[in-house]
Amino acid sequence: MHFLQNGGKIRLFLFLAFFFTITDLKAGEDKPYVILISWDACRYDYIDRGLTPTVQSLIDQGVRAKSLKSCFPTKTFPNHYSIITGMYPENHGIIFNNFIDPASGDSYRIKKDDSVKQDKWYKGIPIWFTAQEQGIKSGSVFWVGSEVYKRRPTYSLDYNHHMPHDERIAMIDKWLDLPLIDRPHLLMLYFADLDDNGHKYGPDSPQLDSALVKLDKTLSKLLSVVAEHNLTDSTNIILLTDHGMLETKKENAINLPEILKGFNYTLQGYDPIYSIFASEDSLEKIYSALKQNASGYNVYWKSELPGRFHFSKNPLIGDIIILADPGYYFLSGKSTYSVGVHGYDNEIPEMQGIFVASGPGFKKNLTADTFLNIDVYALICKILQIKPADSVDADIERVKHLLK
Ligand code: AMP
Ligand code: ZN
Ligand code: ZN
Questions:
Q1: Where does ligand 1 bind, in terms of residues with CB under 6 Å?
Q2: pLDDT: is 18 or 99 the higher one?
Q3: Which end of the chain is more exposed for a tag (fewer CB within 10 A), N or C?
């Protein structure tokens, strides 16, 4: 009797263990996925050219914002890092693509591998870190910040500008093949094609259009991969960008070395925005020289920059800021003419980008007003049901109307 009772208990235990394993697995299966895709420099209106049917299919089933507003400065690294930390650049520390720490003299340069990997530059907590702490794995194909020592997503690769699109999609395929316990539910993908072609040939060039067509085909392949894994119903696709692009004219050059001839100064940033460091006694004179010649650009003391730029709190930002007017650019030792430029004021329409999203978390058939890219962080946290990190600038209240 005693034995039978124990046998019954064991059978009941085995049954419950089996039942809960299955329900756990099911619960895991049902957890939503987010695939966050960046088409670098996809201006808000590029997707109205009739060249991107796959994007259109996402719009038809989901949400499109009139535009996504970039953080200032409208550059690649500050904005990609804002999107995944929910912070303004002045708070997360990646203030330009290239900058110098005036205290140590160390430099951060995107084309210098090691500096982008040093965690000392990065404040804020990337969303993949917060997700990981709350039991959600992540995988990144080249998102800015995913190569940083000790701060990497669960799965990530070192940056390779030339990796073919198919290989990028193959990584997602591979990660979605993993057993549930290892599988990332937050996936990130980055493509530089529109930025490359926009700079070189301009936003209205046939080369840019070809890049759009190619990217749209890649997006379609990605959706097929998701479908092959039977994950379409649980996957949220978010397609966005970091900033737009504006065509400049060669004759709109501002000869910065000429204006600042005879002064000792350090420039940081990249066309069309720089901040300037100089010794105490020459700062006033530099400011006056810039102010006297100010045509095609604006000059500001850092402390008098409009608050809407959120670009003054950080000691890495120099004391004087110069910002070219839309369509103008600075000639400096480092920069040469490019047809397309970004980095201008984030209010101007040409600096704003796309936001398209579709999946179980998003409303259907909604055209939303322009919103700030830092709030994408809040959207992803909500969809993945993770608690946001403390002290972020993102605010779900500004974007919750996009969600079901
Ligand atoms: P920009 O147009 O100057 O703001 O910078 C865009 C460039 O950033 C692209 O051409 C990419 O080559 C580069 N880039 C994007 N992501 C990374 C990364 N994770 N590591 C290094 N370079 C990157
Ligand atoms: Zn960019
Ligand atoms: Zn660019």
A1: 75-76, 97, 110, 116, 142, 144, 159, 161, 190, 192, 195-196
A2: 99
A3: N
Closest ligand (CA of 198)? 3
In the structure encoding, which two tokens stand for residue 8, read together?
Answer: 């019954």
Q: Distance from first CA to last CA of the chain, Å, rounded? A: 56
Q: Which residues contact 165 (CB under 8 A, 6 or more apart)?
A: 191, 214, 215, 218, 221
Residue 8 has φ and ψ, to the nearest 5°, of -60, -40
Q: Which is more confidently placed, 323 or 27?
A: 323
How sure is the predictor about 335, in pLDDT bands with cuts at 50, 70 and 90?
low
The confidence score (pLDDT) of residue 296 equals: 97
344-389 pLDDT, tens digit per residue, is: 999 999 999 999 999 999 999 999 999 999 999 999 999 999 999 9
How far, in Å, from the CA of 341 to the mean position of ligand 3? 7
Contact 199, 47 (CB under 8 A): no
Ligand 1, closest atom to CA 145?
Answer: 19
Residues 272-309 pLDDT 10s: 999 999 999 999 999 999 999 899 999 999 999 999 99
Q: Which residue has the higher pLDDT, 8 or 223?
A: 223
User: What pLDDT band is residue 134 in, cutting at 50, 70 and 90?
Assistant: very high
Q: How far is the CA of 76 from the centre of ligand 1 (A)?
A: 6
Q: How far apart are CA 388 and CA 383, in angstroms?
A: 11
H-only helix segments in 187-234:
193-201, 206-228
* Cα–Cα dist 75/241, whole Å: 11
Looking at the CA of 40, name the nearest ligand: 2
Q: What is the greatest pairwise CA distance in the chain?
A: 101
CATH number of 250-337: 3.30.1360.180
How far is the C-alpha of 41 from the C-alpha of 85, rounded, in Å?
Answer: 19
CATH class of the domain at 32-246+354-402: alpha beta
The one-character DSSP state at 322 is E
